[in-house]
Amino acid sequence: DSQKIQARHYKTLQEMYVKKSNKAAVTHLLNLEFDSRRRFITSDVLKEQDRAAKILEAYPCFREPDHVLDELRILQPTNSQYISEVQNRWKTFYSKVQFYGMMKKAMKPPKTLKGGE
């Protein structure tokens, strides 16, 4: 019976992701389906070299950083603040990378029409 429920959650998750539903609804379904997803990911059915591709095929929502960061709760399940801490560190890192990229582009000397500096 629980496998039927998990299959229904998985099907709904796939449909919601295709329709680009809101993040909170997808996160809720990912939470409901967490145990079966862990079994799928850690099962011997997936070969090591195909594992990442198969996971992204089964769960395309993990192509988005927000859902991947939410999934990191498995690293520290007892720390309720872990996900928010990681998200804050990601935002800080991302803003620094953006700043570095913009500064590097701004500091490039202009090129002439012939390609010289």
Account of the protein in words:
This is Si:ch211-208g1.1. It comes from Seriola lalandi dorsalis. This protein has 117 residues and is mainly α. The protein folds into 2 domains: 1-63, no CATH class; 75-109. The chain is 66% helix and 0% strand. The protein is built from 6 helices and no strands. The chain has helices spanning 2-18, 23-32, 34-42, 51-58, 65-71, 82-107. Helix 1 runs antiparallel to helix 2 (23-32). It is elongated and about 65 Å long. The relative contact order is 0.07. The model has no long low-confidence stretch (mean pLDDT 76).
SSE class: mainly alpha
Shape: elongated
* Assembly status: single chain
Q: What number is the mean pLDDT?
A: 76
| Gyration radius, in Å | 20 Å
The domain tally reads: 2
Q: H/E order of the elements?
A: HHHHHH
What is the number of strand segments? 0
Major sheet description: none
- Number of H- or I-type helical stretches: 6
Q: How much helix is in the residues?
A: 55-70%
Low-confidence blocks of residues: none
How much of the sequence lies in strands comes to under 5%
- Gap between N and C termini, in Å? 69 Å
Features of the shown structure:
single chain; 117 residues; mainly alpha; 66% helix; 0% strand; elongated; Si:ch211-208g1.1
Short description:
The protein is mostly helical. The chain contains six helices and no strands. The model has no long low-confidence stretch (mean pLDDT 76).
Task: Note the topology.
Layout lengths: L1 H17 L4 H10 L1 H9 L8 H8 L6 H7 L10 H26 L10
